[in-house]
C-alpha cells in the first residue's frame, strides 16, 4: 500500500491505470488520517470511506475484463458492511 511513502511532487505519475488518481486520493487520505489521527489515538472508522468506495468501484469496473474481480469479491467477503457501498 505504500504506507507513509512520500512522493516527489515533480515526478510523473508512476501508473497509467485508469484508477491511479482515485488510488492516490485514497492513499493521501489514509496517510493523512494515519499521521494526524490514528497515531494520536483517534480512530474514526468513517475516515476515507468515500475515497475507498470510489477507488474500489473504479477497480471493479476495470478489472471485470481481466477476470480479476475475485480480489474485490474476497474484499467484500472480508468486509461485508462495505461490499455494497458505492
TrEMBL record:
<dbReference type="GO" id="GO:0005829">
    <property type="term" value="C:cytosol"/>
</dbReference>
<dbReference type="GO" id="GO:0005634">
    <property type="term" value="C:nucleus"/>
</dbReference>
<feature type="compositionally biased region" description="Low complexity">
    <location>
        <begin position="10"/>
        <end position="21"/>
    </location>
</feature>
<dbReference type="Pfam" id="PF05254">
    <property type="entry name" value="UPF0203"/>
</dbReference>
<keyword id="KW-1015">Disulfide bond</keyword>
<dbReference type="InterPro" id="IPR007918">
    <property type="entry name" value="MDM35_apoptosis"/>
</dbReference>
<dbReference type="GO" id="GO:0005758">
    <property type="term" value="C:mitochondrial intermembrane space"/>
</dbReference>
<dbReference type="InterPro" id="IPR036811">
    <property type="entry name" value="Ubol_cytC_Rdtase_hinge_dom_sf"/>
</dbReference>
<protein>
    <submittedName>
        <fullName>Uncharacterized protein</fullName>
    </submittedName>
</protein>
<dbReference type="GO" id="GO:0045332">
    <property type="term" value="P:phospholipid translocation"/>
</dbReference>
<dbReference type="GO" id="GO:1990050">
    <property type="term" value="F:phosphatidic acid transfer activity"/>
</dbReference>
<comment type="similarity">
    <text>Belongs to the TRIAP1/MDM35 family.</text>
</comment>
<feature type="region of interest" description="Disordered">
    <location>
        <begin position="1"/>
        <end position="21"/>
    </location>
</feature>
Amino acid at each position: 500500500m505504500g504506507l507513509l511513502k512520500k512522493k516527489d511532487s515533480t515526478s510523473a505519475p508512476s501508473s497509467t491505470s485508469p484508477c491511479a488518481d482515485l488510488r492516490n486520493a485514497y492513499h493521501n487520505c489514509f496517510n493523512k488520517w494515519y499521521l494526524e489521527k490514528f497515531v494520536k489515538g483517534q480512530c474514526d472508522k468513517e475516515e476515507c470511506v468515500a475515497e475507498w468506495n470510489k477507488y474500489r468501484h473504479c477497480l471493479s469496473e476495470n478489472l471485470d475484463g481481466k477476470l480479476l474481480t475475485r480480489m474485490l469479491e474476497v474484499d467484500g467477503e472480508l468486509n461485508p458492511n462495505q461490499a455494497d457501498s458505492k
